[in-house]
Amino acid sequence: MKTFIPEALLLLLLANLTLTRHPKGSHSLSYLQTLLTSPDFLEPQLIYAVYFNDIHIERFNSREEPPRLMHCAPWVDQQEPEYWDQRTEEVLKLMATYKYILKKMLHIYNLIETGNHTIQILMACDVLPGGNLSHIQYEFVFNGHDYVVLNEDLRTWTAVGKAAEVLRQNWEASGLAKSLKTYLQHKGVKLVLRQLVYGKEILLRTDTPKIHMTRKVRADGKITLRCWALDFYPADITLTWQRDGSNQSLNMEVIETRPSGDGTFQKWAAVVVPSGKEQNYTCQVNHEGLTLTLRWEPPQPSVPIMPIVTGLVLGAVLMGAVVTFLIWKRRTKGKERAGSEFKSPWEYQVQLRVCPVT
Question: Which residue range forms the structural domain that includes residue 127?
């Protein structure tokens, strides 16, 4: 049976959650939205996704029937049906707004509505312990070239492109930045608290990273050492290389932390070193579940397998030959003894003839 938690209890329950187990006690929330038009579509298509700590928790696709916001995480379906109805209405209103903006931008560039066009929106924030917002982010991109970005002062915008400049002026005049902040302070924080209440057993866990190092010879004779971290949670982790204790961050290649697809994450950092100098380099791993210094260890020389196998085969053949010979020898002696004990009458006659006369 599902248990629904009233909104009034969310803040009270937050006090009992160990938020400080995560980096700086913060949690990230991201809204990714894409509006598409195509000659094949009668209506623009909206794809809407919500991520909590890089975990996909909600999705919406306007081409599905009926168009409805759906959950993607195992704990999210515990929320009451009224929540999904309200959130679906919010997304449908957003879609109507984006369609209106798209028409305006197409008009500025004198483009037809039935062509291939895209609007992409990223809205994100971090929620600190106690429900305070940090690092609010909003980006709007039209057809991959015009974009509008909210500045760090959370009041003004930076625009690139003719249509984007018109949009920036409208947004600053209407106070959109303030509205976004208000939305995230209420709806965004509430969404974060919901995830922590319903999914705390999964979201507040710690999975220790599995660490290993690989070595690869480059075409120029140098060596690439790559430090891997796999199957860890939460996502925050640092991998740094050092040479004899000196930081090599400027000389290393590192990828962004990536989801593994099973609720955990993966990351690697690589450095190019002179051949024979691998032992001078160490990889420093820092994660909530593990702090480790890793050094390349050459593989131990292995005993050649083929000579052992060949020896075993030859030994088996030789043993078989010896056993066969012994069996044959035994049978031969047995026949000789049998022949001396059971002589034929003719053999006795021959023996009688040759016996000397005494």
Answer: 7-203
